[in-house]
């Protein structure tokens, strides 16, 4: 087994070219493209390639990453023109005969290299009150009960990791920074359709705004960008329907 | 260990100053087409209302302006106009279904290709007939 693994890894190492959109605010007036050749295995991810560049070639390369396993949502970036998590994008799934373009997610202020200012994104997230608001108190020693069917209604939107891949793939968000964006609506959906929550009306009122759900143009970029496979556009459509009906 | 980083490429820098084009799928491109055809139809309607309003100025002025439309360039423009209106109408129905039909979101990509298919069929019926009319009048 060990010998097999060794021959596999030794045979599989190859060189790929990453073209990264760099921006060092102390040096650069505007972003520029920089090319790096890096030796990788087909089982490596884009994040591994970025690590190799940072550790072995250019220590100034800056990007966010925390868990590196698709849970924390830190390393969303635009890879070959599509929003992806660097830690979930395998080299073998990309066309390595061409250079791989890596750049920061679009629509949020660029701070350095692949790092953007996430504050406008989290501001929209906070605005939809993404926490349980319950007017009732469960019986002493009991919890709020919920049936399997009631839970299933909002199961999809509980998966969000707030990586901003969906919001920054949205053409409406690029041109209109005031739009709440898909991620905020997904997190509103998670509580609007929760049978234990009593503030659906409040959230529907917030999203029935000029910059709310009605800005969605159903381009489906968000659904395709989501690294958790959430059907974002479907969730937004359900919130639209709930606004029209005036209740969940 | 891999080779040293390649020198910064001035060509690539100038090629994509604002970053790469976002590679969205059918949903994004149908939206882009819907916008372009929508704006184009708006400007057609603006001109159309203005030239139709000339009938109130004088029938001669109206005839003179409409007469200038009878040339092959406007004839080709009409092909574009009809193409834009058919796409905008069919894709508009698709968007209505996405918003109001429960399964619309699931079948949005299939519905896009149905829109394209119906558009091709309708244009195949319209374009040859129309161009025969346009170009048979050129000599007269």
From TrEMBL, chain A:
E.C. designation(s): 1.3.5.1
Substrates-to-products reaction catalysed: a quinone + succinate = fumarate + a quinol
GO MF terms, alphabetically ordered: 2 iron, 2 sulfur cluster binding; 3 iron, 4 sulfur cluster binding; 4 iron, 4 sulfur cluster binding; electron transfer activity; metal ion binding; succinate dehydrogenase (quinone) activity
Ranges for domain 4Fe-4S ferredoxin-type: 150-172
Cofactors demanded by this protein: [2Fe-2S] cluster; [4Fe-4S] cluster; [3Fe-4S] cluster
UniProt remark on cofactor binding: Binds 1 [2Fe-2S] cluster. Binds 1 [4Fe-4S] cluster.
Segments forming domain 2Fe-2S ferredoxin-type: 14-108
Annotated protein name in UniProt: Succinate dehydrogenase iron-sulfur subunit
From TrEMBL, chain B:
Major localization class: membrane
Cofactor dependency: heme
A single BP term in Gene Ontology: tricarboxylic acid cycle
Keywords recorded for this protein, A-Z: Heme, Iron, Membrane, Metal-binding, Transmembrane, Transmembrane helix
GO molecular function: electron transfer activity; metal ion binding
PANTHER family: SUCCINATE DEHYDROGENASE 2 MEMBRANE SUBUNIT SDHC (PTHR41910), SUCCINATE DEHYDROGENASE HYDROPHOBIC MEMBRANE ANCHOR SUBUNIT (PTHR41910:SF1)
Name of the protein in its database record: Succinate dehydrogenase / fumarate reductase cytochrome b subunit
Organism for this UniProt entry: Alpinimonas psychrophila
């Amino acid at each position: 087994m060990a010998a097999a693994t060794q021959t596999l890894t030794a045979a599989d190492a190859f060189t790929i070219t990453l073209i990264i959109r760099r921006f060092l605010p102390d040096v650069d007036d505007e972003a520029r493209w920089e090319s790096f050749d890096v030796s990788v295995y087909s089982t490596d991810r884009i994040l591994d390639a970025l690590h190799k560049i940072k550790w072995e070639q250019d220590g100034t390369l800056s990007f966010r990453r925390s868990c590196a396993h698709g849970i924390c949502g830190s390393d969303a970036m635009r890879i070959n023109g599509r929003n992806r998590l660097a830690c979930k994008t395998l080299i073998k799934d990309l066309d390595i005969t061409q250079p791989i373009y890596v750049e920061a997610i679009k629509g949020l202020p660029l701070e350095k290299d692949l790092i953007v200012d996430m504050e406008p994104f989290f501001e929209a997230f906070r605005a939809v009150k993404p926490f349980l608001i319950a007017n009732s108190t469960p019986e002493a020693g009991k919890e709020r009960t919920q049936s399997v069917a009631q839970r299933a209604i909002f199961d999809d939107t509980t998966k969000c990791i707030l990586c901003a891949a969906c919001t920054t793939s949205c053409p409406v968000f690029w041109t209109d920074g005031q739009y709440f964006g898909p991620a905020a609506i997904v997190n509103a959906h998670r509580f609007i359709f929760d049978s234990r929550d009593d503030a659906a009306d409040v959230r529907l009122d917030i999203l029935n705004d000029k910059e709310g759900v009605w800005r969605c143009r159903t381009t489906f970029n968000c659904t395709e960008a989501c690294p958790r496979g959430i059907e974002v556009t479907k969730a937004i459509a359900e919130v639209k329907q709930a606004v029209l009906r005036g209740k969940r | 260990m891999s080779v040293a980083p390649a020198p910064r490429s001035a060509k690539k820098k100038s090629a994509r100053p604002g970053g790469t084009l976002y590679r969205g799928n059918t949903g994004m491109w149908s939206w882009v087409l819907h916008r372009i055809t929508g704006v184009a139809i708006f400007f057609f309607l603006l001109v159309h209302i203005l030239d139709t309003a000339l009938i109130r100025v004088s029938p001669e002025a109206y005839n003179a302006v409409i007469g200038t439309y009878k040339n092959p360039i406007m004839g080709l423009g009409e092909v574009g106009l009809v193409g834009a209106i058919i796409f905008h109408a069919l894709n508009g129905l698709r968007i209505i279904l996405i918003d109001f039909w429960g399964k619309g979101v699931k079948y949005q990509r299939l519905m896009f290709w149905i829109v394209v298919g119906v558009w091709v069929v309708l244009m195949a019926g319209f374009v040859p007939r129309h161009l025969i009319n346009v170009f048979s009048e050129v000599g007269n």
